[in-house]
Amino acid sequence: MKFSSRAGAVTPFYAMEFGKHAAALEAAGHHVVKLNIGEPDFGAPPAFLREVQRISDGRSLAYTGALGLDELRAAIAGFTADKFGADVAPERVVVTTGASAALLLSCAALIDPGDEVLVADPSYPCNRRFAESFGGRVRLIETTPETRFQLDAETVAGAWSDRTRGVMVATPSNPTGTSLAYDELARLCATVADRDGWRIVDEIYLGLADDGPDGPPRSIAADDPGAIVINSFSKYFGMTGWRLGWAIVPEEMIPVAERLAQNYYICPPTPSQFAALTCFEPETIAVAEDRRAQFRHRRKLVLEGLARIGLDVPVPPDGAFYVYIDVGSTGLTSTEFCETALQQAHVALTPGKDFGDVGAEQFVRLSYAASEDDLALAIDRLGDLLNRL
After folding, report:
1. pLDDT for position 10
2. Spatial distance between the Cα atoms of 305 and 317, rounded to a whole number of angstroms
3. Confidence (pLDDT) at 214
4. Which of 114, 118, 203, 299 could covalently link to 167 via disulfide, CB atoms 3.0 to 4.6 Å apart?
């Protein structure tokens, strides 16, 4: 069978590859601390799970509209206003099968073959794969610790060419856990808008971002009605396997998104949508905020532990649940370090080559979406490993 050149150009997702190897070690009887995947260990909120049980009573749970339940779209709009300070019309909310489908729809709506798309290096690999799937020419733009591994307005303006059509930004970022200051994000979006470009802003970790000097995290939807803003139930609410996300789109994009959703997947999962209405009740918000506080405590534990064993974190994260570690001092490449850590210390991490080209063999991503006991054990194991190198 002959496969497409598109499929052949897609490299493995190394976070998953190392997870596969970790599972093989576990099957052989070893205990592996898995810090390679960005998946909260808490599971879905209790109220959501109770609602799933309640509606699993034989009712039909038929297709919903392609853009999602109207009640859920309204609830998401209310949450966006209350939590992130952005008033958006419920009609602009597109409920999707995870944030991945929101990115899929957005790229399908915006990208023609040959369009240049600017993306930070490092960045989450799947975002640029969506752009490439529709013929986009992704141009990775080097970022540094000095810019907190984020693009800024000046960099985007300098990189823009006649072929450039848009920019993909994530704040807080995967893999670095670092955020772009809100005012700078607004300047970046204005820079793109001035060039008649589109901007996709991935805010799936915004609920897990630290408060800033001006208060709680804000969504760029508050100031840029032309931005496509992506979010998800997976991270803040811990509902990874339930596959539910959303996009806030410009008004003119609503019918486009609806046509694409109708053809690509008909509608998001109906049981997940109905049960997700509980996510915006006070009980679930309190649970999510408690977990957010636990992530901050875990981050402190990890940063202090890494400093103790001599691994450098050039830019401490301020959101999400990732730490981007410089392993250059070990004498190993990022890939070698991850392979050695897994085989000898039984700690699964993700090499930098998942996230771009610059520093790909210098940096390693650690996810602290694991219990404090596992995180402490992983730090001890890595410390012992470093002593043996």
Report:
1. 86
2. 15
3. 80
4. 118
